[in-house]
Design a protein that fits this description.
2 copies of one chain form a homodimer. The first copy, chain A, is α/β, with parallel strands linked by helices. Helix content of chain A is 34%, strand content 19%. The first copy, chain A, has 12 helices and 13 strands. In chain A, helix 1 packs antiparallel against helix 3 and helix 1 packs parallel to helix 10. Chain A is elongated and about 75 Å long. The N and C termini of chain A lie far apart (74 Å). In chain A, 60% of the residues are buried. At the A-B interface, helix 3, helix 6 and strand 11 of A face helix 3, helix 6 and strand 11 of B.
């Protein structure tokens, strides 16, 4: 009898999560393994909402590779202890030889627990998260593309405020506890454009008085038109998120809400003209600003995840170890899910400027190769800044 | 003695306003006319903040053509009656043969008044506005690119909520009085993706009770995950903007603030899970989602504006008359500034659905050729919607 694999996707979509999915099912197809999707995350597995992916042609699979967002549906269901026996039953009942769970932190925790009760089924975690906060791996599939989006977007905002320098523009970037994405806006800078002028990360407590001082200093130096990048999960010294939506998600995590607008209102109340932008979900599904490096790594991660399971591995996640930053060189490596599960990798202190309102060159050297090529260098007419 | 031209840009940047600037100065260069920029809008003219563009090579000018935002700085200064004699003095003092003002509604009004007092100087308005609300012309340079951004962004949000259908996502689209841009999100739809599920325009009063009914009906039909596009200038039956920032700009226009967040909060208070996104300024300076049709038309508009002035025309604006929608065919035409000035072209009733929460095929046929090619058709796995 032929072998079968089951795959599900968990948590927020990314621009390249389907590249990993495509990698897994392409290898399955090539090895004669029937690929089945659990639709809508782990809940789809529990409830046997299955879709047979075998009908997809190789061309379909390659189109899927280039489609942002989670192609088989995702979910935010928090698995309960009593769900694990049920998951085991489902895997047994359908004689699943290989189970893949394609997700971030919470999903790797779930995946680890499934691996411990899965019996004969081999279980592999397929990493994805725009937040870049998974432990052990150098970086995570999905991060490079969302970072590219953040950097390009802030560069273009920089062009806008250069042209019309009438306000401080605050842009909210995804990231609850880890500021990797907000930090990536530093990649927008070149010799012509200085945006972002300030970057606030959840790794540092947000202090209102210091914020006003920072903004005043930046406007003294660069003029009225400045761009400020802030992580959505920005937290005060009291440990509370600066902009709390008052809601929690299925995992009990607070859903942050509108930090950019909150900060913008703070500035307006101090008489500093300001406005806020929040691309929000757009930044995690932009197909136009995908990092090709990220997409190929995500695809390769999927393929290697299948191959690991095929070769007998279980309870591991495929990740990256960086061999060299310039030229950029990584090797793929298997990390134990038990060590990855529910650890959060924050930006190390060594990458954050002492003032806590920017990142340094160590961060830039780390992140630059991941975004898959340069952020565009736009042509700017070198008129004197005093003119505006 | 050689001839001289002066150009300034007014109002909000667009992704292709520099294509028009490039068109004007390229023709000037080819005709041996010295091109000077007034930096930072009409105020730059009044204050003689001049920059000599003659030093730009043709290659620089073509790079400028591909750079979003206003390359010579823009402004929101409202010209006072007493400024016009001063403008006349500046034009005389510097012996300006041709004056170009590259802007939207307010700028065309200013340009019209300048043309009436400019003496020997020939004055041409170079149309630009993402809002598409200039009178007489079929459409405006800048609109097609911002419309492409809006449509692609909503399509990608549609992929996100298809994958994770846990909320109604409200996206705020620029547009104060005219809903052309919000309406353009209708171009996101194809046979696989139904987003946006609702579109709210400033051309119709916003009625809270009807909004809840609309959202309920859409969620009944499409599931929990829906995308709602709203114009930033959405206004209630009482004539007040739904989300008033409490601020006015230099022209006395109210600055709308956060309508998507306001609507999202309304839904949350009714127990409907919702979140809001606001790309804001990002949508008017995205270099990645430029419509090539729009960019070429903006460039050609610039060239023809110069040629009109060169050939003796004054007090006119170059615009478009549509000869055919499919195949798309326009002709360039000169419209009198006196007729364009301060008129606002709203979406005609014939393009809006009777329910006021969508646009019809007449709108789609109008807007489709302007966005410069198809919005991408992403590959979606056809699992049953009931699975999610």
């Amino acid at each position: 009898m032929g072998k079968k694999m089951l795959i599900a996707q968990g948590g927020g979509p990314t621009p390249v999560i389907n590249a990993s999915l495509a990698g897994v099912i392409l290898e399955a197809k090539r090895h004669g393994v029937q690929a089945i999707a659990g639709i809508g995350g782990i809940e789809g597995v529990i409830q046997e909402r299955f879709y047979d992916l075998s009908a997809l042609s190789e061309i379909d699979i390659l189109r899927l590779k280039n489609t942002p967002s989670s192609g088989i549906g995702s979910g935010r269901y928090k698995v309960k202890e009593e769900d694990y026996p049920r998951i085991r039953d489902v895997l047994d009942k359908h004689r699943i030889d290989y189970f893949f769970y394609n997700g971030g932190n919470d999903s790797m925790d779930t995946c680890n627990k499934v691996s411990q009760i899965a019996g004969e089924t081999r279980v592999i975690g397929v990493a994805k998260t725009i937040d870049n906060d998974l432990a052990l791996t150098d970086h995570c599939p999905g991060f490079g593309s969302a970072a590219r989006y953040a950097a390009v977007t802030v560069k273009e905002l920089g062009l806008d405020v250069r042209a019309l320098p009438i306000h401080a523009v605050i842009i909210e970037i995804m990231g609850r506890n880890a500021g990797w994405l907000a930090a990536s806006t530093a990649l927008a800078r070149d010799e012509y454009l200085s945006a972002p002028h300030l970057i606030y990360l959840p790794e540092r407590p947000f202090i209102e008085e210091k914020f006003y001082d920072d903004v005043n200093a930046a406007q003294q130096k660069y003029g009225t038109g400045i761009v400020i990048a802030v992580s959505e999960g920005l937290t005060g010294e009291n440990g509370k998120t600066v902009a709390d939506s008052g809601m929690v998600d299925g995992f009990g995590h607070t859903i942050p809400g509108g930090v950019a607008q909150t900060l913008s209102t703070m500035l307006l109340q101090k008489g500093i003209k300001s406005r806020s932008e929040k691309p929000g979900l757009v930044g995690r599904v932009s197909g136009f600003l995908v990092s090709e490096t990220d997409r190929e790594e995500a695809f390769e991660t999927g393929k290697r995840s299948f191959m690991a399971a095929w070769e007998g591995v279980t309870g591991f996640m495929v990740g990256f170890t960086r061999l060299s930053a310039d030229p950029y060189k990584i090797k793929y490596e298997l990390f134990p899910l038990s060590e990855v599960a529910n650890e959060e990798k924050l930006i190390p202190d060594s990458m954050i400027m002492p003032d806590g309102n920017d990142v340094n060159n160590e961060f830039v050297a780390y992140a630059k190769p991941l975004i898959g090529g340069m952020v565009p260098k736009y042509f700017t007419i070198p008129y004197a800044k005093e003119f505006l």
